[in-house]
Specification:
Layout lengths: L11 H13 L2 E7 L6 E10 L5 E6 L3 H8 L2 E6 L12 E10 L5 H11 L12 E14 L5 E4 L1 H4 L5 H17 L1 H12 L7 E6 L2 E6 L2 E6 L10 H16 L2
Length: 249
Amino acid sequence: MTEKNVLQPVDAAVRRTAKTFLRSARHAALATLDPASGIPMASRISVATDSAGQPLFLISQLSGHFGALEADPRASVLLGEPGKGDPLAHPRITVFGRAQRIADESRALLRARFLARHPKAALYADFGDFAFWRLQIEGASFNGGFGKAYQLTPEDLCAPTDPALDAMEQGAVAHMNEDHADAIALYAREHAGQAGSKWQLACIDLEGLDLISSDSVARVWFDPPLTSADDLRPRLVDMAKAARASTSR
């Protein structure tokens, strides 16, 4: 008897939904391998993403998973919060790969992206026993609910990056939040279906924007994605114009 393949084909809609999970998550369960026993252990962490969409997290050397990752970088993170009713009926994604401790020139950029999502972490982010880590995605298992199982590749989840956009991101985010709060509100309402809260811009990448309002995160997608940093300003202007035109109808 042949084994039934329960995996569904991956299309653009599945990729977009899975990427939205990654970009909009604030917390996750991190699973590592205990160096003494080899038994998997899981712990809750705060997460953000790098510009490619790979998970970032900040952990202390006093935690068990810090030593576990130093001994064996293989790890996974589970993202997705249950809602009402059966928790297994709600979407979730497990992303797996190898964790890399951030200790090079990219730390400042990744620190800024993480703190944009978790500003209170600035109180301890630079303590000597804390370090930022990135999970280098090797694959993922996405469950969209009963009968909706998908196996995803790094190519399905990771976006292209542009060093020039990374370099200008913090300045662009600050400028938009200080001078264009009205445009950000339009992006939230018209492009992410979110209204009634004070939204701020947190992060920018070639595929879209991450907006935050207190503990909420909203993803705004660029359609089509930007091809370079030069596309950012005209695209933001066009999106604001389109949103204003929509609200005036």
